[in-house]
Design goal:
5-stranded mixed beta sheet; Protein-Tyrosine Phosphatase, Chain A; 7% strand
Length: 251
């Protein structure tokens, strides 16, 4: 039996990983090989990377970036044959490269996440609907670095499945494995280190504050889904049936 792998290596991607294995509230786990999160698939150009991606059997890709990001850096190559959805969940651009040491990642990014949760309700709802479709998988969702927009959507999905908050925070922090890559890319672009000490980091405090804010406003992430996104209990159950391993046969 092949052991599932959380982090999947590519030549030009730094933050591609499988969301499988997390335990939901009813004891079932998220299916391995069904749902992936990543940095920009516009970097998926080498023959080795395209072959590795093809080996995953991905059917669907959700691109969470702005249109201008896609124009500048490209989308996943059409030759992959995936069903591609462009759903820009962020509506207020902010430049992390321009931030200085006075800005702390926890409160700053949590507030940006809250803005996305309110501004991007149409796109977030549609992304969740695509993910809940049993015919959509295997599926990858991504933004530019696979850190913030991707991390926020991943946290929303895991919370709706009933995954423990400690696991949700730990998944978010796994992006810190790519921090050195993000900072090196900044140096390559600008010839200098980022001015923001927290550039490229994914501290758990960001999600802690974000999830606490949703709980204060809506009672829970599920309350946010129902009250703000218009996704009822029936949808949550459909999402669970699509993404979680089936209940073991008692017989």
């Amino acid at each position: 039996m092949v052991t599932p792998t959380r982090h999947i290596a590519f030549e030009d991607l730094c933050n591609f990983r499988d969301l499988g294995g997390y335990r939901a509230a009813d004891g079932r786990t998220l299916r391995w090989g069904r749902l992936y999160r990543s940095d920009s698939l516009g970097k998926l150009t080498s023959e080795a990377d395209l072959a590795a991606f093809a080996g995953l059997g991905v059917r669907t890709v959700i691109d969470l970036r702005y249109g201008f990001e896609i124009e500048a850096r490209g989308r996943i190559p059409e030759q992959t044959g995936v069903d591609w959805h462009h759903l820009s969940i962020e509506h207020r651009w902010y430049d992390q490269e321009a931030l200085g040491p006075e800005t702390k990642a926890g409160p700053y990014l949590a507030e940006r996440f809250r803005e996305v949760a309110e501004d991007g309700v149409v796109e977030i709802r549609r992304a969740l609907e695509v993910i809940a479709d049993p015919e959509s998988g295997p599926l990858v969702f991504h933004c530019a670095g696979g850190k913030d927009r991707t991390g926020q959507l991943a946290a929303t999905i895991l919370a709706l499945l009933g995954v423990a908050e400690t696991d949700i925070l730990a998944d978010f922090e796994l992006t810190n494995r790519a921090t050195a890559y993000f900072r090196a890319a900044h140096v390559a672009r600008h010839g200098s280190e980022p001015s923001w000490p927290d550039y490229g980091t994914a501290p758990a405090e960001v999600l802690e504050r974000f999830l606490a804010g949703l709980a204060a406003d809506y009672g829970s992430v599920r309350g946010y889904a129902e009250q703000r996104l218009g996704l009822d209990a029936g949808f949550v159950e459909r999402l669970r049936e699509t993404l979680l391993e089936p209940v073991p046969d008692a017989g």
